Amino acid sequence: MITGLLHSIAEGFRGLIRAKFSAFVSISTILLSLILIGVFVIFILNAQRLVNQIQSRLELEIFIDNSYTIEQVEELRLKIIAIDGVDSVRYISKERAAEIFRQQFGQDIFEILDENPLPSSFQVKVKPSFRSAGYAGQISKNLSKLEGVEEVFFRQDLLIILERYIRIFVAVILGIGLLLAVGSIFLVSNTIKLIIFSRSPIIEIMKLVGATRQFIRRPFLVEGIIQGLIGGSLAALFFYLILKILKLEIPGLILINQKNYPLLMMMGVLFGLIGSLLALRKFLKY
Amino acid sequence: MIQLSNIVAKYPGGEGLELVKFTVEPGEFVYLVGPSGAGKSSVLKVIYLDIFPQSGHVIVNGYNSLTIKKKHIPYLRRKLGIIFQDFKLLPDRCVFDNVAFTLRVTGTRRHDIKRKVLRVLAEVGLSHKRNKLPLQLSGGEQQRVAIARALVNEPIVLLADEPTGNLDPESAEDIMRLLEKINAKGTAILMATHDYRLVRHHRSKIVRIEKGKTS
């Protein structure tokens, strides 16, 4: 068993050295694909973070019936906090609203009007898992039904647009990533095909002297795995170096972290393995 | 040990084996004689199950072509030694490695490989040329390497497909003597040849084949 495995590994390396050029091409393709996929992941992570930041600022503003007493407002506050998805509630009195008005417009509202028309309100923060247009809309509806609530306001349109664009963005990037993965798998498969053809005399002899199917196929699988591993490792090295350079330049940027390097290498190995399996299925029917 | 019963194995063009039946018993030396294109190589291919018969069946050392699973074919072939007219040696490996190849691909342990290869090389008289590449050897010597490779796994039968076809008469005679020596030690031999002269000189059981039919 161990002798067989060592033989497969040795033959795998030998095959790669024999088909140097095509191995170089497929390793480069795996490397490029993984780098691009990695860059896309960085894009997605950063876009997602941007969306999260916007969503974290999501607040619903509830305007309260002007005739409500302090006791009624407190009662209303308790009802609001009991609603599913509500994280926290902050009361803005009429006086505080006038103060905010003055801060925003630089003018006292009493200078324009004789009385303060601004209603008291609640600013409602939503729990993180409810910060989508759909959930927030539902919360808004539930709030509107409460007695004493005059109006509920939040930027649902902005959330809807944001969510739609991020979905399109992720879908496009995933599509391109998939194409790249398929492309590199195809090239690995082609390299293995060339190696199979160049080694058809040895394969014939192996069959004649009673080598098992697994024994004949294994070196080709090893070759695919090695190609993937080299491509994946180089991609990890690329991101390691980029991380070192960019981290200093753009402090707020999310990058692929060190935990993802094994993942990159595993993806490379997976590309290599699938490529070899495809070639074996097609060109080594034994 | 080998039993072919009413084998029919046609190629898409219509040629192939019509009706082949014969047996090879343990320790026998059997000639399969017929003109070129009569189906001799196809018969050998049926025996090592490179070709499956469309009707009839072949039994080799208990493996039946009707019931054998694909994964068991390598184990059947380990019981056979096969040699060809064109030797089929690996040109980039020395004599020792060509012979050891059989053992390596069938999972023999490293220290057993050395012992077995040196013993079989001595048997075919090539111990002193173990480090040479095939192209540094004569045709007769290359065929001896092929025979050593076929024998190293201690097969029950040696299938020889025109083993002297590419050799000068003297080398051919050497190979025939070597095959007889191997046979005398108990390994059965089935040798396909179109060379009737050879068969007359080295008398043994003969199976004739013509247009895919044995008689």
Explain the overall architecture:
The complex is a heterodimer of chains A (286) and B (215). Chain A is of the alpha+beta class and 286 residues long. Helix content of chain A is 72%, strand content 8%. Chain A is built from 10 helices and 4 strands. Chain A has helices at 2-18, 20-56, 70-81, 94-105, 109-112, 133-144, 156-198, 200-208, 213-249, 261-283, and strands spanning 59-64, 86-92, 121-126, 149-153. Chain A has a 4-stranded antiparallel beta sheet with strand order 2-3-1-4. In chain A, α2 (20-56) runs antiparallel to α7 and α7 packs across α9. The longest helix of chain A is centred in the middle third of the chain and has 43 residues, at 156-198. By secondary structure, chain B is an alpha/beta fold. Helix content of chain B is 34%, strand content 26%. Chain B has 7 helices and 10 strands. In chain B, the strands form 2 sheets. Chain B has a 6-stranded mixed beta sheet with strand order 6-7-8-3-9-10, sandwiched between helices. In chain B, α3 crosses α4 (110-123). Chain B is globular and about 45 Å long. The A-B interface holds A 1, 3-4, 7, 201-202, 204-213, 215 and B 48, 50, 70-71, 74-78, 82, 88, 90, 101-102, 104-110, 149, 153.
